[in-house]
Specification:
The chain is mainly α. The protein has five helices and no strands. It is elongated.
Amino acid sequence: MDGEGDIFGASNNRLFLENAGNWHTWKFQVKVILKAVNVYELVDGSFKCPEKDDKELATWKRLDAKAQGVIVGRLGNTAMLHVQNCETAKEI
């Protein structure tokens, strides 16, 4: 996965969301990363899940999984408890 290291960074350099104390900084960081990997529109709701087109649905699912990976990869254990039942990046 060439290039992802530049965007995602080493795991020891990541800012993890634990509680409201670092929410604003975490939110800004994750928003920038989601934009950098072209999946922010799934989270903000402007790229909605297609209902009929199988090709578009497959693309949406792939991008949603990518967005979920960015978000979940930056959640601490406490924050993770609140999103474990979410199905999409927007829900998370």
